[in-house]
Design a protein that fits this description.
Helix content is 22%, strand content 37%. By secondary structure, it is of the alpha+beta class.
Length: 278
């Protein structure tokens, strides 16, 4: 398996929060259907809640329940206000992805297998995964890993796919970086089509979504919102099948300038959000 075949598109993105309850409340106010909270194993020391989308992507809120070695990087990111902490890419085989990344010098870390209980209308089931982390030196600005879902039906719950804000999925994740040449050279190793660079941005296409890095100046011009110190992820772009419904939800939530369809980080768990037509 080559690196290009090891990654099958975007799976989900992770928003790290200091207060999981406050994060859940923010997402709910923005019209996201938030699943019941899941508790991870003791060695992880984390808990999560998700919003799952019809295009096969999802959004994960992740909070620390107890400091552990496993969540040290996330706690560091929170201290630096890098709330848009990570990106999970889809893979059909996390073990094969590990071998492919190692063979091509990507810097694969040990493969992990884990599960978490999910309360469903018919009773509790385990959501099970296998993941392989990609070394941070390959993806500056973000924690990136590939995720193999062993129980996708437990994650993409049919009773939570209908989003009140009309969101159908994640289209783009946007970061900021001063050195776009380094971003293009390193991230380009994991993007199936390589990096598409211009003076103010780098685009990396992953089948169903795009990761974009901009200069801080370009980001400020396009979004008008603050970011963490670069390199860092900063914004999520969602596709909506009804922007009128989306705008109405943002207006009801008291988002400044809802007509712009841009939500500033103070209203969205530390992350800038933008909504565009599907």
């Amino acid at each position: 398996m080559s690196t290009g075949h090891a990654i099958c598109g975007l799976d989900h993105t992770i928003i790290a929060v200091d207060d999981l309850g406050a994060g859940e409340a923010m997402l709910t106010s923005l019209g996201f259907a938030v699943t019941p909270r899941g508790i991870h194993s003791a060695h992880k020391g984390t808990a999560n809640a998700t919003s799952v989308f019809s295009n096969g992507t999802y959004l994960e809120l992740l909070g620390v329940t107890a400091p552990t070695e496993f969540n040290a990087a996330m706690r560091e990111a929170l201290a630096a206000r890098r709330n848009l902490f990570g990106i999970a890419m889809k893979t059909e085989d996390a073990a094969a992805a590990y071998e492919a990344f190692a063979a091509e010098g990507i810097g694969a870390e040990t493969m992990n297998a884990f599960s978490r209980p999910v309360e469903l209308p018919g009773g509790t089931r385990e959501a099970s995964f296998r993941t392989t982390n990609i070394a941070h030196r390959t993806t500056p600005g973000a924690h990136v890993f590939v995720c193999e879902h062993l129980t996708p039906d437990v994650v993409w719950r049919p009773d939570f796919l209908d989003q009140p804000n009309a969101v159908a999925g994640i289209k783009r994740i946007i970061g900021v970086a001063d050195d776009l040449d380094t971003i293009a050279a390193k991230w380009g190793k994991i993007a199936p089509g390589g990096a598409k660079a211009s003076p103010s941005r780098v685009d990396l296409d992953f089948d169903n979504a795009t990761v974009t890095f901009m200069t801080p100046q370009a980001f400020a011009t396009e979004f008008g919102t603050p970011t963490a110190a670069p390199p860092a992820l900063a914004a999520i772009e969602f596709v909506s099948h009804d922007l009128t419904a989306t705008r109405a939800v943002l207006e009801k939530a008291g988002v400044p300038h809802p007509a712009s369809l841009v939500v500033p980080p103070e209203c969205a768990a530390g992350v800038t959000m933008r909504f565009v037509a599907a």
